[in-house]
Amino acid sequence: MCGIIGVFEPKKTNEFIAQELTMLGMFAEQHRGQESCGMAVSEGSVFRHKKEMGLVKQVFTPEVLSALKGRIAIGHVRYPTCGSATYYNSQPHVVETLAGPSFALASNGDIVNYHQIRKELETEGVYFASENDGELLIKFIVYHVDKKGFTITEAVKHLMTKVKGAYSTVLATREELYMFRDPHAIRPMVWGKTPGGSYVAASESCALNILGIRDFNEVGAGEIIIVSDEGISRTNTTVKKLRHCIFEHIYFSRPDSYHFGENVYQVRENIGAILADIDKVKADIVLPVPDSANFMALGYSRRKKIPFEMGLIRNHYVGRTFIKPEQTIRDEGVQHKYNTLPNFFEGKKIILVDDSIVRGTTIRKIIKLIQKAGVKEIHLRIGSPQVKYSCYYGIDTPTKEELIANKKDINEIKDHVDADSIIHLPTETLRNAVSNPDNYCYACFDGNYPVKK
Ligand code: AMP
Predict the structure, then answer these.
(1) Is pLDDT at 116 greater than 60 in this prediction?
(2) Fewest CB atoms within 10 Å of the CB: 60, 68, 320, 450?
């Protein structure tokens, strides 16, 4: 998963603050990727860029930002899905051509026919420096503009017919900013205008809000939006069947974001209420595994009228445990991340709500922690169906073998995590949590992959 941001500051303002706005947006999207971050800025004649392993605040210090002044900027925060966590695989990718235009690109998603398209381009003499799908997108566009005489818009339209998968993308030239999204609109992408008149595209609306943007739109499925000093122009959308990632609502996105026509927090609350409806167990309190399950536990508590409590406290400086490329780093993260309130759990029967179980690492440790604190019973309620299939559209669940739901049945999982009972939300029921359930991809739960190679 990754986060993108693109800023176009109109010439008339002449403030050269695109890099500052981009940094703030990247910071708001830090939850989408913590391994590396990068920014490319055009100040008219040249692109300046910087990417590095690490967090936005560490990499983009005031000194670094002052060397990146410009009017058009794009930024990226990354956690690896396509290609490992290295500098070369990080984004944005920049291609400077001497005679023609120069480009910088950042994208979120995964390309399912990556190898085929790469081979086709390599046969035509195109060179690749990384294994990252963002590089594939920019090289595809540059090849068609530079060697085939396409306009940029034609190249992107052509890309949408050839390249399959998820790609919410920002593309900067020296004079323009392009925003586009794959025809299934798998990953979120929104855009709006700051009070100062700059156009901004982002993965999530929380990144627009931080820049003072309250009114915004979603980039349409298969739509291209071009921003220049003449204003904006938009192409017709080339919608295929919409296939938004349901996991964005369950776990990935920030609860204060709005996309796929829904408030993320509201979907999570709905999930909690639906979980409560199918649950017969009696308990003293309901509590979430913070933070992603907070609103689910709230929804559950409101529906069942069981008190909502926060018994687990999360250390926010550890980061998201899952977004670490290796299991050993993940394991360490979980242990340092949570603590129990003192004198809180003794003798209590609790409903513990979590958003999902993937490898089963996190919840097992959390349950041990709560048991040590003297709890009487733990009834585990999961706000999603069992994750049984890998995601090929940008979420890090690489092999089926790593998913606990593929190795154990539900009773074995209950025993493995040592809960007194366990209930997952069935897919059919999860559909009731969103307004347009047919517009979503549920492949990680049911194996129905909507976009094939
Ligand atoms: P685990 O079962 O230990 O592999 O981790 C599951 C927990 O990690 C869930 O409760 C989520 O909070 C979080 N999580 C689930 N899916 C993902 C994902 N694809 N990327 C990052 N974190 C995730």
Answers:
(1) yes
(2) 450
Beta carbon of 359 within 6 Å of any ligand 1 atom: yes
The CA distance from 32 to 254, in Å, is 9
Per-residue pLDDT tens over the stretch 402-432: 899 999 999 999 999 999 999 999 999 999 9
Based on the domain organization, do 281 and 221 belong to the same domain? no
- Within a domain: residue 8? yes
Q: Which helix (H) or strand (E) holds 178?
A: strand 177-181
Q: What are phi and psi of 9, to 5 degrees?
A: -100, 125
Regarding beta strands 377-382 and 312-314, do their DSSP bridges make them parallel or antiparallel, or are they unpaired?
Answer: unpaired
State how far the Cα of 373 lies from the Cα of 158, in Å rounded to an integer. Answer: 59
Q: What residues are annotated to the active site?
A: 2
Ligand 1 pocket check for 345: Cβ under 6 Å: no
Which residues are within 8 A (CB) of 311 and not within 5 positions of it... i.e. 6 or more apart? 285, 287, 340, 341, 344, 345, 350, 370
Residue numbers of the domain that contains 100:
3-240
Q: Which of 356, 365, 390, 392 to mutate to test the pocket of ligand 1 (most atoms within 8 A of CB)?
A: 356
Global pTM reads 0.94
Give 316 or 443, the one with higher predicted confidence. Answer: 443
The band of 301, judged by pLDDT with boundaries at 50, 70 and 90, is very high
CA 184 and chain centroid, separation: 16
**Structural domain tally of the chain?**
2
Question: What CATH number has the domain bearing residue 72?
Answer: 3.60.20.10
Q: Are residues 214 and 309 in the same domain?
A: no
Structure tokens at 50: 């910087």
pLDDT > 70: what percent of the chain? 95
Least confident of 39-48, 225-234, 415-424: 39-48
- CA 75/CA 389 separation, integer angstroms: 30
The reply to whether 235 and 291 lie within a common domain is no
Q: Which residue has the tokens 């860029």?
A: 49
How much distance in Å is there from the Cα of 322 to the middle of ligand 1?
Answer: 5
pLDDT band (50, 70, 90) for residue 190: very high
Number of alpha carbons in the 13 Å side-chain half-sphere of residue 317: 0
